[in-house]
């Protein structure tokens, strides 16, 4: 599903949370600890989805080595794992296709078509679906190009190169505009996500070299800018 | 975390479920439907983890295009997405390292070190961690090698090539035995998972060709064997 839709729905659907009273550093060695981490990738579980009990503990289950949300009533362990974002870089001659986002986050900024991989779906099928949903575009999927881990938000981006099948594309419900850009037209200052900027920069460099190896990398949280820190 | 530990814990911690009364084909077009899919990758949610209500509906949220578990009391949408399994193929001269599983599933069969990617972790860090946990082995991680989608169980395998740093390895808590195998010693009939067999077969073929391109593929559910069907 389109991540932006999910983000929007998530935002408006969040119940009041007690998370602000939790400390943010779970122990990875202690076997019992009632303080789950306060990071966006580990949403707090207050009730057991299996039995409805509110006796949820944050502790390391026996035989495991990381803390989890565990129901003290029925013993269900509620695992939480990273999500995969799949998308592609659709090419047409010397141009690439970008979508201007119609929804938050990053409304009005440009992105490559991408979104959360769904249950029951292959990574390639997900990338094809997202391209159809966001850009109403049909593509012939090419090689895997970038795989970017974002550990702070527990996401893994998986981006393919792709050949646009025709010029019959246009904005889907989540896009304001869809168009082709030559390298010198890319709106570098108006890209929605750092993963997209990295994928595009790699692409234009690799195109000059005539080879597109799969590139595995990591994007850590941006360090505070010294000039802003000094100004504060 | 090691998947096998999770599997074991999950098995013993499952509460009684009403899932057998659900139909198995959710509509992807209807906006309201109370029958979630009965597939292992979409565990049934009976209570809302945010507010504890049992008014859980299986329906397509507004602005979305797939059915989800939605709480009718507090409107929280409970998304479920594929999980990433990360691991590696550790090389030493002309040999590769395999682990004999000490736990279910596939107890007693051989595998490459691999397990579920954790929140807050990069794909490479996850592969290194799993290799340390299962084989007590230190590796220098190499290129991404195979990426295999398993849509029926909503998993994506991400396997790297890796160089074993030394011969100081041995079975971790989840392994009965860890050893190096030449190609002609690989126990092809005793491999734990099809993803592992595919990765190893690709590897030995690619080694003869002297190049190891990243290979993206899909493993669908095995079709029933005609001989068994005829016998039944």
* CATH homologous superfamily grouping of the largest domain in chain A: Nucleoside Triphosphate Pyrophosphohydrolase
Q: Report the CATH architecture of the largest domain in chain A.
A: Alpha-Beta Complex
Number of strands of chain A: 11
Oligomer state equals: homodimer
What name does CATH use for the topology of the largest domain in chain A? Nucleoside Triphosphate Pyrophosphohydrolase
CA-based shape of chain A:
elongated
Q: What is the domain tally of chain A?
A: 2
Biggest sheet descriptor of chain A? 8 strands, mixed
CATH class category label of the largest domain in chain A: Alpha Beta
Helix content of chain A: 10-25%
State the separation between the terminal residues of chain A, measured CA to CA: 39 Å
Your description of this structure?
The structure is a homodimer of 232-residue chains. Chain A is α+β, with helices and mostly antiparallel strands and 232 residues long. The first copy, chain A, folds into 2 domains: 18-80, Ubiquitin Ligase Nedd4, Chain: W (Single Sheet), CATH 2.20.70; 83-218, Nucleoside Triphosphate Pyrophosphohydrolase (Alpha-Beta Complex), CATH 3.90.79.10. Helix content of chain A is 20%, strand content 28%. The first copy, chain A, has helices spanning 3-13, 123-135, 194-209, 226-231; strands at residues 56-59, 68-71, 77-78, 83-92, 95-101, 110-111, 114-116, 139-150, 155-164, 175-181, 215-218. In chain A, strands 4, 5, 6, 7, 8, 9, 10 and 11 form an 8-stranded mixed sheet that branches. In chain A, a hairpin with a 5-residue loop joins strand 2 and strand 3. The longest helix of chain A has 16 residues, at 194-209. Chains A and B meet through helix 1, strand 3, helix 2 and strand 8 of A and helix 1, strand 3, helix 2 and strand 8 of B.
